[in-house]
Design a protein that fits this description.
With 171 residues, the protein is mainly beta. It has one domain: Umud Fragment, subunit A (Ribbon), CATH 2.10.109. 12% of the residues lie in helices and 31% in strands. A hairpin with a 2-residue loop joins β5 and β6. The two termini are 35 Å apart.
């Protein structure tokens, strides 16, 4: 086969692969146990970059996003509340719009201790934003504990513009 043709095919394949990763789907690596037992450190997941072009994230979905505190890495958390919802945490229990939220996925590594973020709100989620928590509530850095690095003020919500996509299954 002609070497020029091989180079052209290789460049087209590379460009197609990069386009898929940028606009359709990308692999992500789970770096911590903040979502355990649902997702554990060392796991590899698929990030769907298409779904949220057609709709916003919904309660209960797991999303990847840029952290509100800054940084060049992505975070993975579960959407607990969406724009217009009222969310409150009382002694680790989540209340959504005044009702206790059933969370079969939530895990508490330190159930007998009251930690930062275990009592919070009530807060109303602004339009176009999300309140997110890790499934491993006592070991997750999330909407219940983020602070602005410059002012120290709480950062409770993730804007839609920071959402990279919907986390799908493991591979």
């Amino acid at each position: 086969m002609n070497p020029r043709r091989i180079i052209i095919i290789a460049l087209i394949t590379l460009a197609a692969g990069l386009a898929v990763r940028r606009w359709i789907a990308a692999p992500i690596y789970v770096a911590s146990d903040s979502m355990a037992p649902t997702m554990t450190a060392g796991g590899r997941l698929l990030l769907d970059r298409v779904t949220y072009r057609f709709r916003s994230p919904r309660r209960g979905e797991v999303i990847s996003f840029a952290p509100p505190e800054g940084g060049d890495y992505g975070m993975v958390k579960r959407v607990i509340a969406v724009g217009g919802d009222r969310v409150e945490l009382r002694r680790k229990k989540v209340y959504l719009n005044g009702q206790p939220l059933r969370e079969d996925y939530a895990y508490y590594a330190r159930p007998g201790e009251i930690l930062v973020g275990d009592n919070l709100g009530p807060l109303t989620v602004p339009p176009g934003h999300f309140f997110v928590l890790g499934d491993n509530r006592d070991l997750s850095h999330d909407s219940s504990s983020w602070k602005d690095p410059e002012t120290g003020e709480p950062l409770y919500f993730v804007p839609l513009s920071a959402v990279a996509g919907k986390v799908r299954g493991a591979y």
